[in-house]
Design a protein that fits this description.
By secondary structure, the protein is an all-alpha fold. It has helices spanning 10-22, 26-31, 42-50, 53-61, 81-100, 113-134, 142-162, 171-181, 184-190, 193-205, 211-230, 234-247, 252-264, 268-280, 298-313, 321-332, 339-353, 361-372, 379-395, 401-412, 419-434, 441-452, 459-475, 481-493, 499-513, 521-532, 539-554, 561-573, 579-595, 599-610, 617-632. Helix content is 68%, strand content 0%.
């Protein structure tokens, strides 16, 4: 390999190595086995490196650094692997510099009034884009608005570059894009996790004499943490946010973000500890370093933490209902609490009242009613409260059906209610009609049909409505088998239908094939087999499919006894099979052994059937009777 320091590019390489040294990239230089020049050359070389940024960008984009077809992209640059790798390393770091605020030794030029106005517009777009990401309110057209804001911000950044604004001045806009997009892989290329950790350890060690190092380490970890958070890599994100808290104990949003991560990991105690640190400290006050990325007022942050901590108290075992109610009440009683946070607290407290023993229905209804009457409550919260109050009216003794149906009708007719809440109201309405004495099957079908026809309804809710409507068709007198099976087929073929519903629909359709005249055993077995072959199907669904397929094998002409026993045996060997199908499999296999004249095996299975805790009473009685008969025949 030729000497990488020889030739006309000697100065470029020396400048590169000096920059790597200045910005604590000695490990990269050593890994590449490159010489490290004297630190006295630092000031002279740093600015000159910027002249070669275009070459670095080219090299950074090259997938194979030694690809001879790419040499034309950077004429005059030696294409040894070490040299290309070195330039690529610097290119990555140069990308980081634009995000975390390094200026690479070059002062930021003064901005003109026009440039200042451009920066203000970018700041406003950043704030709006982050607000759209963090908002709990999901409204129709929200996704389109986010896409439009995102495109406008990207366009603004490009125009700002053309207007002469430097990457350091665009740091806020670029960081917001990364934070909102959740482009964790892109961020990890710019800020590798090991680099962020090394920066943190260095800053922690030099806390007393290097505020600049601490600020740079916080910048790196903040952007990396947001990217990991958005990518739902909760454990890694929590570690990053905890690092920030160590470097800056007053950083409130780092604690809030860490608490959210621990809650997602279902580490409830650790989540509550982070919420406690935030709520009891002063870190939620204005002036937080996160303002530019996650614009929230101090009051909004405090309310968010109280609401989230209250929810987390409900996840403990046993739940701490008293502290839940206290946190939600604290938000409700704040006179200047943001409307969306107060509405959320009212909805949450109402839900907790319903979980008390005994439930406080009066308190439930009062909270939901207060939310519904809030003139500034977000539409989705009002719709949710109406749905919840409707359910609560149905839980009264006796149920208040008139008010229950009125609340559902209000949501269904709300022009600004999100589709998911309108779908819930239609579904709840159908369920309520089924709870009448006698059930109103016609109204049930009407509401399920309206939900199924909602083009913007969530797929899982449409699938459940189809499944439930299919069951109702089967309960009519006489049953409407064709419509019943059509609904089950719709669930089976529906993209986005939950796995458990698809398994149930396949199972029920298989049962119905056996009720046709004549029965369609081939399709019946095919549907049961489809459930058995679903790797992600619930264990209960697979166990019942095995049992029913075994029964079906016994109804073939001639019966397939070998396959029948194999299916029952498969259920018996399932470690996670529920009691009901396990008991049926044991009992049915005993019957088959009796038909084959294998009395001893039959006796063993009948005894095992009686030992199943939770075996159906009919199966238990049958096993006891058969054992008595076998005993009498001895």
């Amino acid at each position: 390999m030729p000497d990488v320091t020889a030739g006309p590019n000697d100065e470029v390489l020396r400048r590169l190595l000096e920059a790597m040294t200045k910005y604590e990239l000695r490990s990269h230089a050593k890994r590449l086995k490159l010489p490290i020049p004297s630190r006295s050359l630092k000031a002279e070389f740093v600015k000159g490196l910027l002249d070669h940024a275009d070459r670095c960008a080219v090299l950074r984009q090259v997938g194979r650094l030694d690809d001879p077809d790419q040499t034309a992209a950077a004429p005059g640059v030696p294409w040894t692997k070490r040299y290309a790798s070195a330039l690529a390393v610097f290119g990555l770091f140069a990308g980081v510099s634009g995000i975390v605020g390094y200026d690479l030794g070059v002062s930021t030029p003064a901005t003109s009034p026009a440039q200042e106005e451009t920066l203000k517009k970018l700041d406003a777009l950043c704030a709006e884009l982050v607000r759209q990401r963090t908002a709990d309110v999901v409204t129709e057209g929200g996704a389109d608005r986010k896409r439009n804001t995102h495109a406008e911000l990207r366009s603004g950044i490009e125009k700002a570059k053309e207007a002469g604004l430097t990457s350091a001045q665009l740091r806020k806009a670029r960081a917001a894009l990364l934070a909102v997009d959740g482009g964790v892989e892109e961020v990890l290329k710019l800020i590798p996790e090991e680099e962020a950790l090394a920066s943190f350890e260095d800053a922690l060690a030099s806390r007393e004499d290097s505020e600049e190092r601490i600020a740079h380490a916080i910048d790196k970890n903040r952007i990396l943490g947001l990217a990991l958070l958005n990518a739902e890599r909760w454990e890694q994100a929590a570690a990053v946010f905890d690092r920030i808290s160590l470097l800056n104990p007053t950083d409130g949003l780092a604690r809030l973000a860490a608490a959210e991560c621990f809650a997602k990991l279902q580490q409830w105690d650790r989540a509550i500890a982070r919420y406690d640190e935030f709520v009891t400290g002063s870190s939620h006050e204005d002036g937080d370093a996160w303002d530019e990325l996650v614009p929230m007022s101090a009051m909004e942050r405090l309310c968010c933490a109280l609401n989230s901590r209250g929810v987390t108290y409900g996840e403990l075992n046993p739940p701490d209902r008293e502290r839940q109610i206290a946190d939600f009440t604290a938000v409700i009683d704040m006179g200047d609490a943001p409307a969306d946070q107060r509405a959320k607290a009212l909805c949450n407290r109402g839900s907790v009242y319903g979980k008390l023993d005994p439930p406080d229905r009066e308190g439930q209804i009062a909270d939901y009613t207060a939310l519904i009457k809030m003139a500034d409550a977000p539409p989705d919260q009002r719709a949710k409260a109406l749905n919840n109050r409707g359910i609560t009216y149905g839980q009264l003794k006796p149920a208040d059906r008139k008010r229950q149906f009125a609340d559902y009708a209000t949501v269904i007719d709300m022009p600004d209610a999100p589709a998911a809440h309108r779908a819930n109201a239609l579904y709840n309405c159908a369920v309520a009609y089924g709870e009448l004495e006698p059930p109103d099957r016609e109204e049930q079908i009407v509401n399920y049909t309206a939900l199924i026809k909602m083009a913007d309804a969530p797929a899982d809710k449409r699938a459940r409505a189809s499944y439930d409507r299919g069951n109702i068709y089967g309960q009519l007198d006489p049953p409407e088998r064709e419509r019943e099976m059509a609904d089950f087929t719709a669930v089976i073929d529906m993209a986005g239908a939950p796995v458990d519903l698809r398994a149930k629909a396949l199972f029920n359709r298989g049962v119905n094939y056996g009720k046709l005249n004549p029965p369609d055993r081939e399709r019946q077995i095919a549907d049961f087999t489809a459930v058995i072959d679903m790797a992600d199907a619930p264990a209960a669904a697979r166990a019942r499919a095995f049992v029913n397929r075994g029964v079906t094998y016994g109804k073939l002409n001639p019966p397939d006894r070998e396959s029948q026993i194999a299916d029952y045996t498969a259920v018996i060997k399932m470690a996670d099979a529920p009691a009901e199908p396990r008991a049926r499999a044991l009992y049915n296999r005993a019957l088959r052994y009796l038909q084959l004249g294998d009395i001893e095996r039959a006796r063993v299975d009948l005894v095992a059937t009686l030992e199943v805790n939770g075996a159906p009473s009919t199966v238990r009685r049958g096993a006891e009777r058969l054992l008595r008969d076998l005993h009498d025949k001895r």
